[in-house]
Structures are given as C-alpha cells and as structure tokens.
## 1
Amino acid sequence: MTQPTDDLRIQQARPLLTPASLLEQLPLPEDLANNIAQHRRSVEAVLGGEDQRLLVIVGPCSVHDPNALADYAKQLSAASQSLSDALLVVLRVYFEKPRTVVGWKGLINDPGLDGSFQINQGLQLARKVLLDVAELGLPAATEFLDTTFGQYYTDLVSFGAIGARTVESQVHRELASGLSMPVGFKNGTTGDISVAIDAIRSARHSHVFPSLTKDGSAAVLESSGNPHGYLILRGGRDSGPNYDAASVSAAATALSAHDLPASVIVDASHGNSEKQHQRQAAVVSDLCDQIEQGQNALRGVMLESHLVEGNQSLTSPAELRYGQSITDACLSLDATVPLLQQMASAVRRARTAQ
C-alpha cells in the first residue's frame, strides 16, 4: 500500500540489470585483462616519474556514437604507434555528461539520444565499446559520475577521472578510494586546486560506504584506499587558465606540502582553453616549452578531439553529422595528430638535454 509520505515524486521504476549479468553477457577475456592490468601499471609509472614518457589522454568530449568512436580509436592507434617511445596515449571514453542544469546526460543514460533513457541498453553499449577499445590495444580513460555504474565496466578502464563538479563530493572520494586504477581529480569549477588535493588525500585512506555488489545487492563496502591519485589542472571560473609554468609549479609545491607526488596533469580544454577548442593547440605549445625547460612535474595532458572539428546541436539522431561532438567542441583528429607529434618531439628533446 502506498504511503502518503513516500515516493510522491517517483513516476516509474524499471528493473536494472545486474553487473554480474552484464559481465556474463560481455566477458573480459584473460589476455585483454592482462593487457589492461599492464596499461594501469604503465600509467602509474608515467605519473610516478619512473617512466619518462608523457601521458596523453585524448578523445571525444563524450561518446554518443559507438561506430564513430571505433573509427576514431583505430585512426588514433595507428597514428600514435610511432610515438610510443615518448607518449603513453590513452583514449578518452566518457559515457556520462554532467549538466549544469539539464541536457543530454550521456550514452549510458540516454543511448537513443531521444529522451527514452534506456539505461540497460546504455550499460551494454558502454561495456561493448570498452571491449572493442581493449581489442585495439588502447588503454581507456573515463569519468565516474554515477557512483554505481562503475560496477558494470571498471575492469576495462585504465585511468579514472573525478570531475570538477564532483571533486568535493564525499561519495566520489569514497568511490575513488576503492577503484582499481589510477584516478585523476580535477580542480574545482572555480579553479581552486585545494579541493582536488583534499580529494586525493581522502581517497588514499580506507573508507566504508554503501554501494552495489556485482550481483546487484546492496552492500557496505570497505576500501583499502587508492595510492594512485593525481591532480588535473583544468582552469576555472575565477582563476582563469592554470596551465602556465607558474601554475604548474605552484600545484607541484602544494602537492609536495602534503607529501603527495608532485605529479600534474593539464587538461588543455575546458577553462584552460577558455571554452575555445582551437586554443588547445596554444596550450599544448606552452606545455611543450615547459617540458623542454625541464618541468618534471608535468606528467600528463588531456585533449578533446573527434573525427570532425567543432560540435553540433542534438536534434534528430538521423540528422547528426558523423564523427562530430554533440557536447563540447573538439579538435579534429587531423589537427590532433600534429599536436601529438609536437609533444613527442618535446619529450625527446627534454631527454636529450638531461
């Protein structure tokens, strides 16, 4: 019997498939699991300074068309093979889109792009996309927004991110403490890096929190803490861009003050490009100069890139331009490859100068 004080604004409840059932439908083969484990170790080695390459996380702002992402991934894989001595290239595979007010929330929430919110289908698509990326031999990075979705595909992810809107969230810090891969924490939307450093510190500790098990049961989980948390500079509403040499050095000093690794990733998009996608090239040029000048704290770069430059409004799915973002504007892949080559050259010259 319905209570007069309960679920007054819930219009419908639909069954959600369990993580275990999805993993059974789309299992991770042992050879790919071993590759992903090695990708994670490689990311940790780069960000920890043991590997002198530069981590580059590159790809679309968000995935809305798995076929276009597959095309992008194949071309990126081919273009980056000759750069593997200097760069560790990780494909950006983001399924969830945080919204300031409302809007399309990402492939998992609305895979049909039509407001039908077929979340079970979205979870299946997300896992299939990550399996296809793993088959190509590319490491994958994704942002964790919903704290339960990860149970469906974290075994396929080599780098996780906590975004600027959620970096102060206790539940996301708890989530990060139990994730099996290295995690990047973005500075807050204002540009404040202290909230991200606090998140890194928090995630290094053990936490006890409610969540879901693989069989879909509610459970209290206890994490061991994640020692591989890293700061991502993405600019901010109040601070403006923070990719310059002084900002990177200040971030490294702030990390060291808390006995954290002085390892910084710079997001060339968002606040650092002042929401102008083409300005990512100028950010990369500045970062290359810093690398060649011996800035050892700069260990990673993030870029938003897709097959086609710019972005488009989400109207009818049938009318969308293939390979162009429906969220943030991106560089084209053709414009991205020269930036990868530029970063690889900077890393090589910096090594020679040492």
## 2
Amino acid sequence: MSVDTDSVDQSAITRIGVVGSGTMGAGIAELCALRGLDVRLSVSRESSLTAAPRRIAASLERQVAKGRIEAGARDAALARITVGMDLADLSDRDLVIEAGPEDEAVKLELFTALDKATAPSAILASTTSSISITRLAGATTRGARVLGVHFFNPVGVLPLVEIVPTLLSAPEVVDEVQTFVDTVLGKTCVRAADSSGFIVNALLIPYLLAAVRMVESGPSTAAEIDQAMELGCAHPMGPLRLSDLIGLDVVVAIAESLHAEFKQPQYAAPALLLRMVEAGLLGRKTGRGFYSHA
C-alpha cells in the first residue's frame, strides 16, 4: 500500500487516537499507520499492551506475504503505532475513533471519559454499527465535534466508510472528516442518517436473520443457503458465512438495536441465533458458528 504523503501533509488531521484493540480497532490503527499517520492505540487490559501490537504485526506480515506491501512499509507502520492504557495519552490527538464493544453503556462511559481526556479541538468519532451517535454525543460537552465513522471488517480490504452526522454535528467538522477519510485513508464515503443500522446494517441484518430462520426451520443447511446466494445472486459470500465473519454476538447486538428503534418483526433475532451466542458459538473468532473454523 503506497502512502499519499501530500494528502497527509495537507490534512489538519495527522494524529489519530483509536480506543479499543479488537478486530475493528486494530484494523483502523493499522490502516492509519500504513497511510503515514501517528497512531496512539488505547487498550483496557494490560495483556493487550503486548497482544495488540502482535495482532497488528501479524496482519501486516500477511500483507507482506501476499505482496500487498513491502517489508519497509510494514516496519514503518509498526513504528508509527504506540499502545497505552491511559486515555490521557490521547490529549494531543486531532481525531479519536472509539472502537470498543458494541455496548451502549460502555460507549457512553468512554465518550464521557474521552471528552475530559482530549483537547476541546479534538474530534470524537465512533465506529459503532448501530448505536445512536446522538446519544454518544450527549455524553460529551462537544456535540458539534462528534460523529459516526463506521468502517467495515476487514478494515484494510473493504473500501466503504459510513459518515454519520448528528443534528448537532458542525457541517465543517463532518466535511473535514469525510475529506480525511476519502483522501488520506483512501476510502469511499457515504453519508448516513443517525438511525439504527445506518444504511448497510439496516438493509443487511434482516437478510442475515432471514437466513438464520431458514436454517432454523429446515430443510436447507447453512452451506446450501450460502451456495444458493453465492451462485444464484452473485454474492461473494453467503449470509451464514458472512454472519460468522461479522461475529454472531455482533449480529445479535445490531438486531436488538434495530428492533428497539423500529419495532419491526424482521429485526428480531431468531431463537437459534440467541442460543448460539449464549453457547459461545460466535463464528470465526471462537472457531465455531454456523461453520467450523478450527
């Protein structure tokens, strides 16, 4: 991946904070570092101080092995990332992207803390899949400088980012972030209303839930349903395999958020999906979901 140094130099956003080192947080940190940005990754557990850099290093190594980047780009990206546990370390960041668990209470607490830890000029963003950005902004004293910046997994591969302003977001802040994501990060942005699921998940989740209901009622298997959608509709990945990739717990969390907001039956998580999450069968990240990923 080549870095457009002119774009980085011309952007007012050069220092990035990322909160959370899970799949999304690590992916965002890696992307920003590859694009020549100074990245500070904030983690909540001491074990993540070493686990997070290892995860990013392993991802970068895979990119080198596939010929997507050179070894020098890998080393330079790793050198641009620092990891810590104190949110106060984000005090000099221009943009802080929250990528914590898809739990509203956790995110509200984080935004309250980030509001105190960062400079008043900093822009605060969340990459939540479904939680109201307006509610997150309400936990701060800077509603004009809060918005949603929703990346898709895997961050380094999928080109789309949903930009989600609230009724309070300053237009110039939204424009600045969208320009940054477009030109510096090299993504394609769409603007979405601050309603649960935004654009993609509001359309995608009912489709995934319908596939789960089809497995639940039989006689088609997950593999047959996926094959039908891949070969019959030219989808690159069937709905059950995609659910495993996203994480079944994340699918349930988004479904519950959509159902709470819209009260429509198509957003209700099927019993089979709920039981699988209760059993810890979350998909790829646990090694088993609708498929075995051992």
## 3
Amino acid sequence: MTGISSTNYILAAATCATVSAVVLKLSGSSNPLSYITSFKYVSDAAQILQEGYAKYKGAPFKVPTLNRWIVVLGRQHLEDIKKSTDDELSLIEAANDSAKVDYLIGPEINSNPCHISVARTHLTRNLGLYYPDIKDEVHAAFEELLDLKDNAWKSVPAVETVREIVCRTSNGVFVGLPLCRDHDWIDLNSRFAVDVATDANILNMFLVPLVSKKLPNTAAGIARAMKHLDPIVKKRLRCTGEREDDWSDKPNDILQWLIDEKQESSTGQLALRVLTVNFASIHSTTNTFTQALYNLAAYPQYVTVGPLREEVDTIIREHGWTKEVIALMRKVDSFLAETQRLEGVLTSCKRKAMKDLTLSDGTFVPKGTHLCVPTCVVHRDSAVYDNPDVFNPFRFSQLSDDEGASARRQMVGITQDYFPFGFGKHACPGRFLAGNELKTMLAYILMSYDVKFEDRVSRPTSIHWDLNVIADPTVRVVFRKRTCN
C-alpha cells in the first residue's frame, strides 16, 4: 500500500504559497490588491472564478495566481480554442510553464510528444483487446488489497487504496505484467506526480532553471524507473529484432507501442515517456474514483437496492464482463459523469498565446497570455443545468434518454456544457481508457461489496488548493462482502 501523507501535500502547498507570496511582495508589484487576491486564489479559487463569471457574465476576466496572471474565458470561447492552431494557442507550452516539464522530465517530452499520438491511436483502437486485462487487474487488486474475511467489515484509507488499484490497472496497460504489480513500481508512480508538482512550484517561485539540477525528488524517480524498465526494454528490443514476424505473445501495452514507433530505443528515453503517461493519468483517475466512492458511501440507497446496483446485476449476469457490456451501463456512466461535474477540475482548456490574436467576439489576447475556461462554474451554472448544486446520479442518463441515448452525454463525451477532459483536438486522449477503468471499478464494487464511511454519515468536503479539487485523503471507507442480493 502506498503512503503519501496528506500532510505532505498540505505542507508542500503551504510552503510554496508562503514563499511565493514573499517573492511577489519583494518583486515590487504596484497593485497590492493583486497580491492579496493571488494569495486568496490558492485556497479559494472556486469562489473567485464564480464571482468573476457572475460579474462579467461570461466575458473574459483575469485573476492573479501565485506566479502569473491568467485570463479566464467564457464557455462561448470554447469554439475559439477548438479552432485555434498550436502556433496560436498552445496547450503544451501552457503545461510546460506550470509543470516545468522541460527542466524536470526532459525537453524531448514537449518537442516530440510521440506518447500523445501513440495514446490517441492505440489506447482507443486496442481497448477491446486489452479490456480483459483491465477487468482481471481490477478484480485482483480489490480482492488482494481488501482481503475481506467472512462477513466482517474492514476499514481502509480511501485515497491510498484507490490509488493503488488505479495504478495497478493503468500500468497493466502501460507496462504489463508483472511490473504493474510490483510494489516499488506502484509506489514510484504514485509519488512521481507529487514530486514533479512540488519541484515545479519551487522552479516557478525562484525562476532559476539551474535549480532543477539541485532538486532530488524528480531525478530520483527517473532513476528508479530506469532500473525497473532496463531489463524489460532490452528483452523487448531483442525480441523485436529476432522475432518480429512470429512474436505470438508480443506485449500489447504502451511501452511496446512506443518501441514499435522506433523513434526512441534507450531505456532512459522510454522511461521518461512511461513516467509522463503515468503522471498525466494516475492521480486524476484516482481522484475521480475516490470522489465517486464517497458518493456511494454517502448515498447508500444506490448501493443496497435501487437502479444503479440493479443495472449492474442484470447486465453482468446476462452478458459477463466485456468492453461492450461496460458500454451498456448507462446509469453507472451517469453516476461517474455527475461526480465529475460536481467534484472535477476547477478549470480546463489551459492555453498559452504564442502570438497576438483576436477572439471571435473581438477580445484581443496578447502574446504570452495564459488562458483557461472555468469548468467548475459552467458545471454549476443554473442556465446550463437544473438544480446544479444537487447531486443527481442519473442526470446524464436521463439527458441521454431525452436525446435518444446520445453519446455526447457519456462521461467521456465532450460538449460546451460538460468538458472535464478538455475540448477540441487536445481533449484527453486517455479518457476512454480512464472511462472503462472507472466504470469497471464501480461496477465491481456494486457487484461484490457493501460500503460505508467509517466514522461519518455525510459526504466529506473536497479540498480546494490552487486549481485542484482533491478528495479528502484522511477519510476511511469500510467494506464487507456483499450480503444483499
């Protein structure tokens, strides 16, 4: 079981916030209000975004963060983002400015983002082929980590447990067995995203690229990954050269797809790609499912009896576990989509203007401007959703019924009303894998377990820090083998 303490998150974030505030103050900002607002933005970004959205009625407005101003666009600008080219509005450069990928992971990740094209092409196309492995790893991980006895309840830390299950399942697709079950590999990838975020905050504060050479956490993670992958990469390269035409048991995972691209072949290069894919996926999927697990525990009527469990029981008992069957679970899909609507990202569609440009409504955007869309505000807008602050688990399946089972209302669908995975050509290429993992995990819990909170009845409030919505990592959830049928 991995053990990233919530104290580490809070301490690192508080330290970064405090030092950043001092840096801003010493920088001689002529606007003390922006200094105060930037500090407030760290802990109350959702309220600031809501106030700006209401005040400017969807027109662009800007907010000061700890190290830069960000221009917040309205949902009507999503088409501008969709139609823009990468040399006008760049997702990669916006992400690099925030996460300092060039310094911490390597400049080749952005200069040649081949892992994105590989994910976009192969993850979706091969989903039916590797779905049995997803299902098997989900089932095995739950059984091993919970290790339930008879009819007894067992308490587990929710975030840590979910993180390990997600990490094992995702790495079954990223690097395959047996590495996806290796405890050190799981621990490494669980920690790597936190290490990169912490080190990136330090670089953002001091603006000294050379500091990156002094930061030990990210470099240590890369070294650990190379140690794990080196024998695997060497064996696969040998098999690719010797048995390419008759390799009947050729692995079907991202590592092999990257090798087959023949753009990179060293262990170091491939390790950086695999770490980046993990960095981009593990913690977001973990957070989404933990939020959904909290909703299950908070609303037991959907677990014990009722349409959610009935849907899973009926479909699985009639058809078994397949990718096509998971696609039939519209209420499960809706439960997860509603969870993402209320407890998903604060902003999305982050871009950096690479040149001066003018939006369709005449808004002028200077070169270098950072842009985003306030996803959380749109998702809670009463003009978009009825009773937007109420958790309605079947909201999206009911909308699909009204539209004739529209795929646009699925949790991986993207519209101007719902876009937790981004919008346009840069929408998350791994969302179909994530969607199948999440639905399989939720369906397996409903089929196999009863669940409740250890010491509470109501749902825990999410932690808001900067642009992150974090499931409370201190909460424990109690499982037992399912008793009601």
## 4
Amino acid sequence: MKISSSLLLAALTLVSAGDIHATGGPDKGPGKPDNRELVESNKLRRGLSRTGLLLHGVALQAFADANGKTRAFGTKGHNATVSYIKGLLDRTGYYDTYLQSFPYTFSEGSGTFSADGTDYAAGYFTYGPAGEATGTIVPVNNFGCEQSDFPAEVAGNIALVSRGTCEFGLKVALAGNAGASAIAIYNNAAGNLAGTLGAPSRPDGPYVPAVSLSGEDGTVLLAAAQAGNLQGTVHVDALTEARYSSNIIATTKEGDKNNIVMAGAHSDSVSAGPGINDNGSGSIGVLEVALALTKYKVKQAVRFAWWTAEEFGLVGAEHYVANLSAEEQSKIALYLNFDMIASPNFGYFIYDGDGSTFNLTGPAGSDHIEKTFEDYFRKEARLPSAPSQFDGRSDYGPFLEAGIPSGGLFTGAEGLKTKEEAKLFGGEAGVSYDVNYHEAGDTLANCNVGAWIQNTKAIAHTVAVYARSLAGIPRGAGVLRRRVAIPKSISTNRKFACGGTHNHNVDRI
C-alpha cells in the first residue's frame, strides 16, 4: 500500500501540532436546535472514510517510529497512542471520557539458541528471566505438563519440549523445579512460536531462561538429541519492571445508561514492532466509528474502550471488568471486540457466538450478535464470512466470564490460510493471514486497507443496530446471565498474544 506524501504530511502535522479534531460532532450551543437524527447504519457507515483510517494509521506509525519502533504498553509510543485517542474523543464534547490507570509488570527481552555450534532462530517468552546456560539438550516426555515428564537427566541441563496441552509458564516452572538450567519450547506445528509465561512468577517452580523455537527446528533438534549427546547454549537478555498504563473509556453523554452497548479494541503492540494491524487496525476502526457517531442521537448509551496491556494477557480488559460492581456489569447489554481487522492475507471471521461450529457458546445474546454480523456481510456488504472460535483468547474473554453477551471480528494472524478459505476470500493458501504478525513488519504499509474498511463498516453497522434497539439481547431483572464455562485448557491460557488459525492462540500453550 502506497501512502501519498500529502496524507503523510497531513498526519505528521496533526501529530506534531496536536491539532486533533473530530470528524464533525453536534453543534448544540445555547439556543441552537438539536437537529440530529437517531443513528442509522447506512448513514453512520457513509460517515467513514479510507482517509480517516489512514490518517490515524500514519499517526500510530509515527508514534512507534519515534519511540523504538514499538507501541508496547508502558512505552512512550503507547502513551502517545493513548493521548492521541483520548484527545480526539475529548474534542468532540460528545463523550464522558476517562483514563483507567494502574501499574503492571512490563517485560521485554530477546533470546538466542545454539546446538553443536549451529545457531537457531529463537524467541523470547514474556516474563522469562535473563541468564545463560550451556549443557546437554534433554528431551522432555509428553508435553512437559507434569513433573513426572521431566527425566532426572534434565538437572543442570537444557530441557527440550513441545508446545501443547498446558501453558508455557507451567512448562518453564516445572523445568526449574526439576533443576534444569534452561528450557527450549518448540512449536507443535510448522512456523515460529511466540508467547508469554503469563505472570512474573508462579508457585509450580522457579522460572529458568526460556526460548521458543520453530516447529521445523524443534523436530530436527529432538531427533538429534534422541540420537546422541547434543550440546546446546541458551542466552536470554530481559528487562522486567513495574510500569503504569491506561485503558481509555468513553461513554456517550446521551442514551440509556442502564443498557450500554460497548465496543472495544486493544491499543498496545508487542515490543517487536509498531503493531499497526495488531492492533492499531482495531483501535482505529473503533475510533473512526466513535467519531462518526457524534453526528447522531442514540437510544442506548454507547461505550467505547481501548484496552492496555492486552499483549501481556488481556490485562486491561480484565482489570476493567474485575473492578465493575455487579450492578455496573449488569448495565452492559453487550460487548463487541475488534482485534486485527486488516491482515494482509485476510479472512472475514466472525466470533462463533452460537457455538454451532466450535461448540463454545457465548452468553445468551452472543448468538444474536454473530447473526447480526453474518447478515451484514451477506446482505449489506455482499461479502463472504466464516466463524472464528469463541474461546476467550482476546479482550472479550473477561466479558464472557462475566456473563455479558459478546461478539466481534478478526482477519487472522499467524495461522495458515486454507485452500477453501483462499477460494472464499481470495489471497494465498498455505500462507499466514499476517506474515508480519508480532514482527517489525507489522506496519501501515502491510495492512490490507480494503479489509480494514469493510470491517470498520461492519463495526459501524452493529453499533448502530444495537444503539437503536436491543431486540434479541436478553435484558431485565429476570434474566439470568450465564457465565461461559471455557475449558480449562483454554480458560487458563487465553490469548496472551494475538494469533491463531481462526482464533488468537499464540498464547501460553
């Protein structure tokens, strides 16, 4: 995607001068009539523009470029993103906005791995400790999810284990408890592996230096280690410290505050790159809809949120939901989530709220949200769509667990597009939906703007539908809100970094 010099100049001028403005809110000065109409889908969608998306995209790219090429939470790039979004919303006068700030442990690092003199590409697990270890590479039995999986020979040596079944943090802690000096975890499928240990520590054992390896390299190393005495070296550089960060919460001043329609996206990136698709695309899509909505009245109050530290484990969304009283939770009629909506080799994926495809059903009303998106793509956009697993691995997870009807969109991450999906959506089969996922290449230039626009229109449509009417969404004192019983292998290992075939699953397992 080529960005015109005039667009770049306009965005950089906007950023440097702080001349942030809305796309046109209500003019309701003293004595002036309020001629705004109740929001309608087609009119709200017409207020969106390609230029608006790109202008915000250039701004977020500039924040990253000026601050170490990243917008990870706790960095200047992310702080600038938060200020930018909140400033735009405040200027409209249409929303009550606030920053929900809190401390959380920040972690970043890098790792290297070699075996018998050969270097292999290695990744870092968030919250992994710094250190270096040299020793025999010892394969771990099964998936390293039980202490008995670790043979006695692992003591003082480097454990080698496959991804799968349990979270990364448990594997690393059990390796430490077995006396291993380090651990290498390889993907259980083709491709690289990225993730987090999920927390700074855990009671199962002490963390040891840990690196991730691709499935291809892991298979080669496993065979070599089983065949004879394979010597390896793990080196990890890491920084871990407490940093403050903020969610942005913006609620319309108008509308029924006992029936809130909520939409959100995470505003942070990983440390490795600027994160313009993951998740600048969702943040910007939600922002453009929020700005366009200011021209209209709403029946239900609409609340927009931009979550911090999602890449560290849904931290911002979990903090928000956990700090709501039962009464305040009950006022949220539904939650819509948008995480990665401009993948270059995209698919139009809708969270499977009715469980008909993946057998994980959301709270009552989630099925209606899924159908609203499906009907939009089929009838209005005239585009194909497909279901995405509704497993709680993005910021909707805490809302599912609170029994709040939820839904949303996704265009794919590191998973490979199938032949059937290539026929349905176009693009290239056998290639990741986003080959730049969690990499330095996740830039504005590598976003699919066409998919971005279509998904932003779908956001606008669904917000407009529910801001007018909550028909199909159970409400009232007599409604028992059902909490989702997410299987343990998922509920303890939510996204913790975006990704997946149809879902976000480059997580802790």
